[in-house]
């Protein structure tokens, strides 16, 4: 999986607040989540997770799971939330049998 180039003007705190705003209201702002998490590399996503935990005293992984569903949840579980090694294992399992990516690795 390719790594995105790090943004020079990256602010994990601002991204954490923008994600929280995307979670608010009746509908989750999926485009906002994609815009933020889809354009950050693994190190930046880790910094966002830590900033979200510090600001909101809540695990962003659990928040994403509660806000997302279906294939969108599976996609972000495999690409955004998980660190590279488990993500590779999920990808191998997915390609091996063609089934859905497992919800979690034990």
Describe the structure in your own words.
The chain is mainly α and about 110 residues long. The protein has helices spanning about 10-25, 30-35, 40-55, 60-65, 70-80, 85-95. The protein is built from 6 helices and no strands. Helix 1 packs antiparallel against helix 2 (about 30-35) and helix 4 packs antiparallel against helix 5 (about 70-80). The longest helix is centred in the middle third of the chain and has 15 residues, at about 40-55. The radius of gyration is 14 Å and the shape is globular. The mean pLDDT is about 75.
Short description:
This protein has helices spanning 12-23, 30-37, 42-56, 60-67, 70-81, 84-97.
Number of helices: 6
Main sheet: strands, sense, barrel: none
Low-confidence stretches: none
Helix proportion: 55-70%
Give the DSSP E fraction (strand runs of 2 or more residues): under 5%
Number of strands: 0
Average pLDDT over all residues: 76
Coarse morphology = globular
The H/E string reads HHHHHH
Q: Structural class, please? A: mainly alpha
Radius of gyration, whole Å = 14 Å
How is the topology of this model organized?
Blueprint: H1 12-23, H2 30-37, H3 42-56, H4 60-67, H5 70-81, H6 84-97
Helix pairs in contact: 1-2, 1-3, 4-5
Features:
mainly alpha; 106 residues; globular; single chain
